[in-house]
Design a protein that fits this description.
487 residues; alpha+beta; four-stranded mixed sheet; two-stranded antiparallel ribbon; 10 strands; 50% helix; binds protoporphyrin IX containing FE
Length: 487
Amino acid sequence: DHKGTDSGLLQCLHQFLPGSSSPSLPGPPSFPPIGNMMELTHDHLPIHLTSLAQRYGHIYRLKCGNTTMVVLNSSDVIREALVKKWSDFAGRPVSYTADIVSGGGHTISLGDYNEEWRAHRRLVHSALQRCCQQSLHDVIERQALHLRKVLMEYKGSAVDLSEDFTVAASNVITTLAFGKEYDKSSLELQQLHSCLNEIVALWGSSWISVLDSFPVLRKLPNPVFSRLLKEVARRDEIIRKHLNNYKSQERKNEDAITGSLLQGLEKQHDTEQGVLLTDVHVHMATVDLLIGGTETTAAWLSWTVAFLLHRPEVQTKVYEEMCAVLEGRYPKYSDRHRLPVLCALVHEVLRLRPVAPLAVPHRAIRDSSIAGYFIPKNTVIIPNLFGAHHDPAVWPDPYSFKPERFLEGGGGSTRALIPFGGGARLCLGESVARMELFLFTGYLLRDFQFVPPEREASLPDLRGVASVVLKVKSYTVTARPRAVPNP
Ligand code: HEM
């Protein structure tokens, strides 16, 4: 539990002995007033930041307007900042546009570190825990079986599965959140997704981020920004409707997180802890779960199938392992220790395509240090998880898809994997995600063999499209049913 004890000393050293004890951070030449802004507009930022690490090392700085960003590119330096010195780096950059998408900083993901945020995260964490213990396994199994049905109905034709994966992942979250699942054709579901996707895409666009670095531009008309405001209003309207619906139900789904959260609010009134959480926090927690839990899991599933098309023998190994261990039944999450090949596949896809490749930016809430470099308060920290997972010092042949590296004797250690970040800001949905990735993959590979469409000359492009979420370019695939007995 690091409390930043060395920060006062570091600050003194930095002020009085500049350069002598704490070297200045390396980084590409910066040109005022834009600094290194051009480095940040690269089309595949994680790959670009990783290539800069080859030149400048595991830790380097970039300047953007008045902000200094420090990019961390190995799992050791990322852990030093996020886990060992978590209390120095648990902040989020406070920004004009983040405030707009997070209802004034009231989401967990974008809210800055303070007492209110801690109480909010605690409330949602315990509601999620309760729900993971009680109903998560059943909820995922149900969606996995539904996905099976959908794939069967394609009858071996070539299809793009990304939307079906999104519906499956999203139904897990909406069932957990307010006990509701949707059909792919549901207008309401489409509206919800289109607006959440728009918000994430618009917020990631340089038309928007430029407003944070250069406030003067906020006075000019900006059609992209107007669209963002409209989508945020639409999102809030949809979620408000759901929460009101939930509250007015006679027979409430007791398992739903919304119920636990609302109960949590009441308990808090009874114990009076100084911070008062309200309906706004329940509303924004729902936004967090929907945004954090839908595109991430869905993108990961699309990546898995894409990689498996490139190495079909891996599917066979996973399938044979399941046949031998489970004798025809579907896997349970508790079987994971007996299914090392399936687990190795999950780990390798998390390594190669951590779907939140740059996590979410952190902010130093006090002066501190990383890898011996002085890091002043308010520095923005970018954990380059993609870079850490491609570090050649840790991963031999880092760009190759080799699940066998995680099998006994393969040399790969899950300790160096950090796809969910760590410390105070560890992904709130990690346990939900891990169970989903394992069960969805197990169910899919038990029932189907994924093959490239017959007339397709090329396999999926594995480079990906990076925004906040790292996605695979759309591709089509044939899901060929395996000859196994029906459940
Ligand atoms: C944050 C990864 C699925 C909810 C994060 C972060 C990462 C991440 C890297 C940022 C950590 C940081 O700031 O250092 C992933 C991956 C997933 C996944 C790889 C799936 C493959 C989910 C799911 C949920 C979720 C299913 C919800 C049920 C959140 C939330 C945060 C977060 C609320 C913000 C935490 C905070 O700021 O304190 N996730 N995530 N994620 N994730 Fe996930």
